[in-house]
Amino acid sequence: MRFFRDVATIAHKDLRAELRTKEALNASIAFALVILVLFSFAFDPDPDEVHQFSGGFLWIVFSFAGALTLNRSLARELVNDCLDTLLASPVPAAAIFLGKVVANFALLAAVEIVALPVFGILYSVDLRAHLVELPLVLALGTWALSVIGTMFSALTVNLRLREVMLPTLVYPLLIPALIASMILTTDLIGGEPLGAGNSLWLKVLGLYDLVFTSLAMFFIDTVLVG
Amino acid sequence: MKALEIDGVTKYFGDFPALRDIQLSIEPGSALALLGRNGAGKTTLLRILAGLSRPSKGSVRILGKNVREEETRRRIGVLGHSIGIYDEFSAEENLMLFARMYGLANPRMKADEWLDRTGLAHVRDGLVREFSRGMRQRLAVARAFIHDPEVLLFDEPFTSLDDRAIAVLQDLLRGAREQGRTVIMSTHQLREALELSTHVALLKRGAIAYSGERLQEMLDDTGWLYRNYGDA
Questions:
Q1: Which of B52, B84, B100 sits opposite A225 (nearest CB)?
Q2: Is A2 an interface residue toward B (CB < 8 Å)?
Q3: A92 CA to chain B: closest CA distance, Å?
Q4: pLDDT above 80 for A207
Q5: pLDDT tens by residue, A51-105
Q6: Which helix (H) or strand (E) holds B184?
């Protein structure tokens, strides 16, 4: 119980700090919207083409926009050496990590909530037909992005080139989760529900989240304290 | 049970030995001044004591337990070189956050109590980024004391403090000593440190050059220790 209270305290702190400065959120939302607008004017795809590339396109937008948020996650703790204060406190490193993952998940979800209707309008996709299954896929994919991004944000926090290093390290490891999220999102937008045809990818995504969340929570104390 | 037991601690940064086979122990209620030139290893040792870094060899026990145990960290107050508080939060929000992290029963009451004690009650809702340097330092002191720690680990606590913050910190440290708390601080301010301390450890190139009780000679002549045991 104490552990989850600590997780909530850290998540609340990070969200409050971000909502006060809006440093990462504004940049991520602006990036996502610019890409969606530019691509719609550059390619002007017909509905069949949209159904074929929608999943891949959306997840590229989400993951690239997400990198801007994830970069700030641990870096904000470097100001005034707040990371040391967190680590010297009795809050377990796993709770600090999970709190940050929850905060990043909420921020990335906010970017997706803004970007998806814009995608629907610009690319003529009726997303109302997928209000139950699409959020599930988005949640699983976004959790994977948050866990891996937060873990590598912790690993690269003391590097001068962390803005460059983070995407370089994160995206290769995210390939299985991104492929699964892209395939499932493409299927849903193309009218194929979650089920027999794509259940393997749903399992891959769920298992990926479970395994990497567990591994990250196990190793985070070593990563942060050395 | 010792307040602090350091057993053969060695710390390497690459091939460079920042600390070499440190052996040290102090009783509860003692005040240890950790002295030494720049680069002697004081901050490295304090970071290990605070659980912010792991030794390459050896072990540290505070109040008989491993410092990375949550229960031990709950009993330690740490004040490092930097203030360790959030610029985008108000003074009260910062202290309430740390009160929650230490599991204190009434975070707002505790925060308000320490804002009063450090003379910051009138700016409780002000954002830290708008504070003067002295106010930020006093808030950092309040943050380190808010959970009534039994062991205080302070790294250069008097450096760059204004007069008021020095007075606040000296009062708090004297109070902590009277209540039987253990204080371990690294400092270059020999006069202030020696007046507050019961024990002294001098680090020289990562090794202990002297450790023992603070002697009257040290108070009478602050250069005595360095002349006899350091690089005078």
A1: B52
A2: yes
A3: 7
A4: yes
A5: 888 999 999 999 999 988 888 888 889 988 999 999 999 999 999 999 999 999 9
A6: strand B182-186
Full DSSP string of B35-81: EE-TTSSHHHHHHHHTTSS--SEEEEEETTEETTSHHHHTTEEEE-S
Compute the distance between CA of residue A114 and CA of residue A136 in angstroms, rounded to an integer.
17
Task: State the Cα–Cα distance between residues B175 and B117, nearest whole angstrom.
Answer: 12
DSSP, res B84: -
**Packing angle, helices A133-155 and A162-189, rounded to 10:** 170
At residue B163 the predicted structure's pLDDT band, cuts being 50, 70 and 90, is confident
* Residue B227 and residue B202 in contact, taking contact as beta carbons nearer than 8 Å: no
Map tokens 């929850």 to a residue.
Answer: A102
Which tens digits make up the pLDDT trace of A36-55?
A: 999 988 888 888 888 888 99
Query: Inter-chain contact A84–B54, Cβ cutoff 8 Å?
Result: no
What ipTM did this prediction achieve? 0.90
What is the Cα–Cα distance from B138 to B128, expressed in whole angstroms?
Answer: 11
SS3 A121: helix
Given the structure tokens 């002007």, which residue do they identify?
A44
Overall average pLDDT of the A136-141 stretch: 96
Residues 131-190 of B with CB under 8 A from A: 143
Partner residue opposite B101 with nearest CB, options A79, A81, A91 = A91
Contacts of B158-162 with CB under 8 Å at 24 or more apart are B158/B187, B158/B189, B158/B192, B158/B193, B159/B81, B159/B187, B159/B188, B159/B189, B160/B133, B161/B134, B161/B137, B162/B132, B162/B133, B162/B134, B162/B137
Query: Do the Cβ atoms of A129 and A44 come closer than 8 Å?
Result: no
Q: Do A13 and B83 touch (CB under 8 A)?
A: no
Q: Say if A22 is an interface residue toward chain B (CB within 8 Å).
A: no
Amino acid (one-letter) located at B32: L
Q: Between A49 and A15, name the one with better pLDDT.
A: A15
Mean pLDDT of A133-159: 92
- A137 to chain B nearest CA, in Å? 33
Between CA B42 and CA B18 the distance in angstroms is: 9
